[in-house]
Amino acid sequence: MEVVSDSGSRRLALIKAVRSLDEDNTIALPDKIQRIWDLLSATKNTRLHAVEENILRWLFKHMSGTTEDAEQVRRYPLTWSILSHVFPKIPSQTLGRSLASLRFVSVLRKTVGDITTAQKKPAVSAVQTNGVEPEKPRKRKRKRDNEFPSDIDELRTPQGCIKSATAVFAALDSLFNQGDRRAAPNVPERRVGAEHIKSLFSSSNEETRDIAAGLILTCDRALSVLESGISRYQKSWVEIIASLWNLRPHNKDDSIEFARHMCVPVCSILTRLRGILDVAPVIVTSQAVKERWIRQLERLLGAYLIRPARHAFVADGNVNVLQTALDATKRNLGGSVLVMWDVAARTPRDSSDPKSKAEHSAWARSAFQTFIDAVKSLDTPYLNQVVTQMLDIAIQANSVPDTTTLRTLCKSHGIRPGEVDWNLIAKIVACDPDVFLVEHTLLEITFDRISDPSNQDSATKETIVTKVILPLEDAYAKARNLAGFIKKWYDLLCESTPNLLDQMIWVDPRIRERLASLVQSALTSTQLLRVLESLESLDDDSGARLIVLDGISAGVAEEEFIKVADPVIFSKVFEGKTYENLSSTILSLRWCIAGRMASWETSNEVNRLRSELKSTLHRILKKGALEDPETLEAFICYHKLWLANHPGSKHAADLARRACSFVERLTSEVKAKNDLSTLKPYIDYVFRFLPRLTELRSQEANDLRDLVVDLFWHVGQRFTVGGDAQNDSLLRLLLQNFDSEDEESLVDALISRPLDAIDSAEAQSGWIQPQSLSLLSILLEFPQGAFTKGRRKRIMSSWKKWRSVITDRTSKDQQYVVAVLRLLIKVMQQPTFYEDMEFNDLVYLSCYMVEPDKTVLSLIEKLVDLTLRQMAASADGPSQSYLSDAFNFVKDLGPTESVYAVPLMLIAKGLVSALYNPATSKPHNSTIDFDEIAEKLAQMVQTNLSTFASESELLGKTGYVESLLLFSLTLSGAKCVNAIRGGKTIELSTDTISQLEKMGGSYVSDEIDVGWKLREFLLRNCASRYDTATLLAQLEQSSRIVDEDQVYDLVDAFVKTRDEAARSHLLNELVDRANLTTESIGPLLAVKRLIELFSGPSNGVTQATHDLAAVHNRLASLLSRAESLRHFKYLSDTLLLLLDKHANSMTQFNIETTLSSVVHVCSPSGPKIHTPKAAGEIYDKLYKLVALVLKRHRLRLRGHFPILLTALRALLTTLLADPSSSSTTRASSSQATQHPPWLTSRLQARHAERFARLLTLICEPSAASVARGRSSGLDSATDAAKRAAGQDMFAVVELYIKLQLEEATAVPRDVRKALEPGIYSVLDVTPQGCRRVLNESLDANGRAVFRSLFADYKKFGKWSGV
Fold it and tell me: What is the model's pTM?
C-alpha cells in the first residue's frame, strides 16, 4: 500500500481500511492486523477516536471465541501492540465503558491462560518418497519477522509465549497510565475514567486473581526463556501485577489466596534473582531492573502474605497463612522458606505501639519455628544450608530465635554422630553464645569436636577459629568468666602429645591475640594470679603452658598486672625448664615471653633473666637455622635484652657482640641466597629497630653500624626499578627510619657504597655495570637531605665523565634512562656547580637522551628548567658565561626538515622561562638580549605550528608519538611566549588556523590531551574568532575524565581579553544549561573557574550583572541530581566557594537552599551514585557545607533553626543507617527508603566525628561566628547563641536515641564513641525543662537509653569547673 505524506490522507486511508476489514475473507487475520498496525502507526493523533473504537471492537470480536483463530489473534503480539497504541487515543471514561462492554477482562484472562500454556514446536517427520520429490507442504500462516511471529505453532512455543506476554504487559501498562495525565483540562473526567478502568478488575475476584497469577508465573518463566535476560523492557511487569492484585475485591481470605496462587512464582523469582542456595544466576541486562523486581516482589510478599500472617498470629496465635504458603511451595521449599523468612524477619514493627516489640519478637520466633518444621523433610546437607542461611538472616535483621530453639538446632542439625556442620555452629554462636556457655555438656562436645584432627583443612580451620572459638572467647569475657575459658583451653592443649601440639587448631595465634586484648579488661590482678597458679599439668615442660602464657603476657602492660605476672611466669617458663619434643613454632613462644619480660623488669631482674637464658640463646643464635621461627624470636629476645641493659652496664658489651655476630651471620646468608623471602623477617627487624643502637658511643655500636650498612648494600644489589617490591620496601624501611635520618654517620656510610660503585671505577664506568640500575635505584631511595653539596658535585662530574657510554645504554633500556634522569633531577633540585660545568652538557643531554616517550620528555624538560633557573638566579661570572653560551646557541638555531626538533624547543623554551621573572613581569638581570630570544622562540613556535597544520595527516597516524610530543612542547612554548609578550599574538594564516581547529577537534574526540592545549592556544592567540557559543560547544565535548587543569586553562584563555560583562554572560549561559550534572564535566568546571576568577563588581559593572545568589540557588538545586561522584564533588566545591569567598552576595534564601539541598541529598531521591567510597566522600562534602554555614552565616540562622534541625536529622539518620541490612529488606517501602541511593556502605567513625563537630559548632560557637556589629555589652553573643541552641537541639538527641532502638540499626561502638563529644555539647546547653520534654517524648526503652547516656554525660562529659 502506498503511504502518502499528508496526515489527513493517512487518517482517511486508516478509516477505509478499518471499514473494509471483514469484506475480504481471503486475507488472513495476522495480515489484516499487520495492515492496521502499519496505517495506525503512521497516523497522527487527533481528538477524534471513532476509528480507534472500531479497531477495538473488531479485535475483541476476533479474540473472544474459543477457536484456533481466536487463540491466534490473542497470542499474536501485534494485536496487543495495537491495543497499547489505541488505549491512549480514546478518552479514559469512554475507554472504560467500551472495555467493559467488550468483556476485556475475560479476554485478558483467556490470553493469560494461553500464554501460560506453552508447547514445543512440532517437528517435521521424515516421509518415505521412493525417489520421488514430495510436494512441499503449504504453510498455513507465514512468519512476518522475528519480532512479531504469527504462526500459531511458533506462538505456542515458550519463546512465542514470552513475546506475547511482553506485548500484553505493554498494553496493560498503557491502560493503567490513562488516569495519570494531569496536563489535560478535563481532569475530573479523566479521574472518573480511571475509576471506570479500575472497576474492570475489581468486579470479579476470580478473573483478576487468575490474571495476576498467570502473569507472575509468566515472569518466572521469562527468567529462563529470555536469551538476553531481563532488561528495561520488563521494568514495569511486577508493578503491573501488584496493581492488578490490589484492584481485585478484598476479603478476609486474601492472604490464603495469595499463598495458594501467587506465593510459588514470587518465591521462585526471588530465589533465582538473589541467587539463594547456589541457584544458577539469572542473566541480567539491566541491574536496575533486577533490583526493582526484587524490591517490588518483596514488598508484594510482605503486604499480602507476611503482614496478614503476623496480624493473624497477634490476634489468635495461629500461623495458618504461613502453613498454607509452605504447603503450596513444596517444589521449591528451601528457597521459598528463605525468601519468606527474610521478609518476615525484616518487616518493621509499629514503633508507636509499645506492645509491638514484644509482639514482633513472639511472631519472629513462631515464624522461625514454623519454617524449621517445614524443612525437616529435606536432605541433611541441603537442610543445614537452609538453616544456616535462616540464622544469617536472623542475625542481620536482629530477629534471633530464643536460646532453646538454637540449642535444639545445634543438637539435631549442627552436631551429629561423626559429623559437624561448622558453618551452622558458627551462626548459632553469632546468634547467642549462651547456647554453649549455659549448657556445659554441649560445650564439652563442641570443644572435643574442635580438637578432632579431621578439622585440618584450611577452610574448616578458618571457620572454627574466626567464627566459633573467638566469639566464644569474647562471650566468656563478657560473662566475666575469662578465667574459665583459659582453664578449658589449657586442658584441651594438654590433651595433645608434645610433638603434635603445633598441629592443633587451639594453637592458632589469633586465639592468643584475642586473649591478650581481653586480659586486663576482663580480669583483675588477683584473678590473673589465680589463673597463672592454676596452670599446672603432669608434664612441667608441656608446650601448652607456653601457648597460654604467651597470650597472657602479650596483654599485660599495666604495672599492677606486671607485678603479679612477672615472678609467676618466670618460675613456670624458665626456672629449671628443659623443653623437649616440641616443634620450633612452640619453642619460639618462650623467647616471645622472655622478650616481653625484659621490657617489664629492672636491671637486676633482667640480669637474672639473661643468666637463665644465656646458654640456650647463644646456642640458637650461633647454630639455629634461620628458617626456624625459634631463631627469629631468639634474636628479637636478645635485642630486647640489650635494650633493657643501660649503656655501659656489665653485660651490655657482651650482648652487643653477640647481636653483631648474628647480624654478620645474617649478612653472609643474604650474600649466598638469591631468594630473600625466608630472611625477610630478620632484615625487616634489623632495619626497623637496630639503627637506634648505632647512636651509642661505643665500639660495638660502630661495628653494628658497619654491619647494618653491609646488610643494606647486599640487599640493595637485588633492587631494580619496577622489580621486587619486597626488596624495595626493605630498603625504604631503613632509609625512612626516623632513627636513621638524624644519624649523619649512618647515612654517610649507607650512601657511600653506591656512590663509590658508580664513581670509583677508572677503566670501566660504574654507570653501565650490570648492577648499575640497582645502584641508581638505591640512590633514588635516599632522602633529599642525604645529597650534600660534595655528593651532588661528585655525581654530576661522574655523569659528565661517562656521558657517552651512559647515552649508549639509555638508547637500549627505558628503565635505565628514567632512573638516570630522576637521579640528575634529584641532584639539581639544589644549586649544584660541578667541575667544568658548561652549557654544552645540557645540549648533549637534550639531544642524545630524548626518547619518544612522554615520561622521558617531561623529566628532561624538568632537568633543563632546573639547570637554567639555577644559572639565571646567580650573578657571578661562570653563570653569565653559561647563559651567554645558551643565548648564542638559541639565537643561531635553525629548523631541521621544516620543524624545530624536540631538543631545540626544550632548550629555547627552558631558557626563556628561566630568564623571565613572573613576579615583576620582567627578565632577570642578565647581559643577554631577552627580547631577542623571546622573539626567536615565537618564530620557532610559528614555524612548527605552520608545518604541523600543513602535515596534519602525518600527525594523525597511529603511533607517531614523537610528533605529538613535539606538538605538545610547541604549544607549551606558545603559552610561554604569550605570557612574556603581554598577549601579543603569534601570526598565523587563516588556513593554518582553520586546520589547527580541525586537528584540535579530532584530538579531543580521540581523548588526546594535546587537543585541549591546542584549543587553549587558539583561544589565546585568536580571541576574536571565538565567542561564547564556541566555548560552550568545546566544553560540552569534554569527557567525564578530562583533567580539570585543562578546562581551567581553556577558560582562562577565553576570559583573559574579555571584560567583566562578558564573563558574567558566560557564567549565566553555563548555569542556565540543563546538563551540568550529566555527561561532560567541562561546563561545571568552567562555572567553578569563573567564580574563582570573579573578584567583585568593578569598572562600572553593577552587582546585578554578577548575580551570584542566583547562581548559588541554581547549583544548589542540582546537587541532588548529580549522576557521578565527580559532578557531585565539583558542585559542592563550587557552593563552598560561593558561601565562603562571596559570603556578602549570599542572601537568607541561599542559606536555606543550602541546607535544603543537604536534606535532599540525604533523602531516597538523592544522587544515584554507586562508585566505590562514594558514600564517605559525599558525606564529607555535606558536612563541609553545613559547617561553613555555621561558621560564616550563623547570624542568618536566628529564627530559622527548624531548617538546620532538618539537615542535622537527615545527616544523623544517614550516618547511622546500615544499607547492608536495609538494602536486602525491601519488604516494605518505609524500610527500603530510609537511606539515600548513594549510601552503599556503612559510614565510619571518622564521619561520626564530623557530625559531632557540627554539634559542637552549634552548641559551642566561636565569638566571630555569632558576633554582631553592635553589642549591648550586658550579654555575650556566645551565651545568647548557646541559649537559643538549647531550646531546639535536644531534638537531635531524641532522634539519636530512637535510631539506636530500631532493629535494623545497631550503632557500632566506635561510632557511638565518636559522637559522644557532640552529644555531650548538646546536653551542656539543654536546660532542665527541655531535658524533661525530651524524656517525656521517649518510650520506656528510650528513657532507659537516655538515663544511661545522661549518667555517662555527668560522669565523663560534663565540665565540673575543676
Answer: 0.70
